[in-house]
Amino acid sequence: MDSLDLAVLRQARDWRVEGHGVWLVTVIETWGSAPRPPGALLAMRDDGLVVGSVSGGCVEDDLIDRVRHGERVGKPSLVAYGVTKEEAARFGLPCGGSLRLVQEPLGDTAWIDQVLERTARHELVARRLVLASGEVTLEHAVRGDTFSFDGAVLRACYGPRWRLMIVGAGQLSRAVAQIALLCDFEVVCCDPREEYNLTWDVANTTFSKAMPDDLVVQLQLDEHSAVVALTHDPKLDDMALLEALKSPAFYIGALGSRLNTAKRRRRLADFDLTPQQIDRLHGPIGLDLGAKSPAEIAVSIVAEIIAVRYGVPLAQKKPGSSFPEAQDIVATEDGAAVCGVAPVHE
Fold first, then answer.
1. pTM above 0.85, yes or no
2. Residue 48: is its pLDDT beyond 50?
């Protein structure tokens, strides 16, 4: 799922704790060019405040209007929009699209606390809602699980945030961190060099002065994790890569020219890495955008990470670059209906 949905659940929980009436609204089915996919989530407060989305805005406006005029759904119920062409036009659903929603009152919030705790531990979890009773239970989910609704039971998957570990705290690293934050990555920067770690000032990131290889092991990188080595110092970059290439991280890349990348691959071959593990290394990192400034290079790096996350072939690369072949696309349009799926390079 999209980790932004975790923010929706967190806000819904907080509103409920404050004493507000809260309803969760989930897209369960779409036809045509509906704006949001199944699994998309919205939370609505009793005074009309909302967080999240289920459409381009017009459906939200109608839901808000209903609540403000006193409508109070007491049990899970189905809502349909855009059944006719006239309704589709009214609610801004293009090409005759339509969607069905489940609207449910939020009562006990303990399950949200459990979801947030488990996903913070990088677990995958599914919520099961029985419409007839409103009963909510949590169960273990596996990578590849998707949102489902069979007419009686809704099952929504929740996964941890995508995480980016940056080795090096220089100017380029700052730009990469800032752009990654905007793309909803959890960012961890590592640099044991005092002249760099004393000046790291990117808000909402975690900074570590540990040796990069030690931090890679400590973080227990999973399929939601990416690593970029940006120090230009082989002693630090290669140490991180030696451990990261053994992990399930979905993206591992290092800054450097094609010549330096070739040299790095030869150095890595002297250690306990298999050729298949070394072949997972991206280098030089970043799509070929003609980037010159640190900010532009950062855009190209984060763009490549996102492309790999969604299994998009890296066509925009300089000839001679080293990168794994693209995997099949494994996510929905915005990732909301997939339970933490990431391309896994064998």
1. no
2. yes
